[in-house]
């Protein structure tokens, strides 16, 4: 039987097929069909000669949530808030994107005031009921909500993270009185303190809930009609998979499902190769996503943003910049060369696509300097036009008094610097030396930049994984069932606080075992856990996640771990200052799929030759096909290794070797 991972993006749909019995991988890339997503999936499967009745595991990731929120195409949402907190969504946090731009307009509230309703109730900060819900008042509020129009309702009551009883009562009464409305509770989405962030994330979730549920239902029906007879699994932003029911209930957890797939694949592939510390670099058409993996675990955050609004769900910590294969090069008013964030996208695309694009992009630069072969199609879909790329390059080069080669090299140099800065933000700025990590590039353009990035960062090992152009879809196949839980504690970091942690963790573990059994079919004895305690020094308004193997035996042990974690992150610790426990976060995992990779058998052929342009002018380079490289084969740089969907540039002073798992390991001499 087969396992399939499908990453549906705005432009392309990537399909990965894995056969456990033979460790065979097959990949296909098709143009996405937004009106009928299943059509692109079926086209990809047809290319690979795969029938759905041969498949027993299907994992899917999508940009639908992200696109809907970025485009503002989600449903309008009615909000029910505690009396006195109606305007939290409009007040926000008082932050300005540009600190000294006093006239800058803030983001509009996620729900206009006419759709924000107040309920006379109050839960205290300790979870006690300060003011009970009046049933008559609740009915009147819910009737106003129904009359307002929107089907989506977000119930966001004060301190519901400590006691969700009032929110649940409102949801139950709404289901009785107005069953056509779809209710989302803030205590289900973000059971943490921080009213604005909790309210905003809940409204974002509510705005796309119906859309995503309908989409997943339609996709499941189409796959079943095609012969697929097993549950559909969905990739989440935390790097795990959940059921379609869970994904439809909490679609905000899918916002980073595509990039998280690449991180999940990196954890798996790097682990097989024996590299627990990795920096990933996913370079696509519009952006570059980088993530740091330490001791086999990616850095995580609950401080994300989407469309400028807070997203407090637990997610892989990914730093994104607007520099990718389609990023446009331009001259600013000061006469400097800039790259991105504007992108040529897929239409018209880079000039080399021959679809009417006239502005030079990073892809055009790679083609002009010889990294890409104009005789090959890009990803099997797009033929490259080098004449069009040179014309676009020459037009901008004339403004700088350069020729097209000099400009192309300059574009790649600036792109490398931007990507290097993004990597430093998640490594050096967080107390990690990038030289202690292996760089793992993927995405269509990632391996072309790899050795240049590594040289800038002082990294001496680069691991290019199998199928780098479809790597996120591969991550869907390697991902395990995962659910994340958080409970607010708010206690001093002493023995009483530690006792509260023990109680909360025991409760969350019981909940997790039951949920994985019910939704994912995972037996309780197969569930494993990850645990962190959110802590801060007294007086701080933010907390730091402190990873622990289990609940510490003593409070002193917990505080010592907090101090060392804090010092690693911020380079100092206030060791004499009292500490507080803010929350506990538990991650529950199902068994990890056993996925291994059969390296290419290799085929005897003569290496090709080409020339690539760099800082020292033209240099002769070897050209190899990756499918022709068996384990143990070495390729000294400068060289270009080509494969379907991606190209690896091996810089001068680097040597590429194929390992036993089919990775290309590039080592600096």
Automatic annotation (TrEMBL):
GO MF annotations, alphabetized: 5-oxoprolinase (ATP-hydrolyzing) activity
Source domain of life: Bacteria
Domain Hydantoinase/oxoprolinase N-terminal: 4-175
Any single GO CC term annotated in Swiss-Prot or TrEMBL for this entry: cytosol
A Gene Ontology biological process term: glutathione metabolic process
Boundaries of every Acetophenone carboxylase-like C-terminal domain copy: 500-662
Domain named Hydantoinase A/oxoprolinase: residues: 198-484
Name under which the protein is recorded: N-methylhydantoinase A
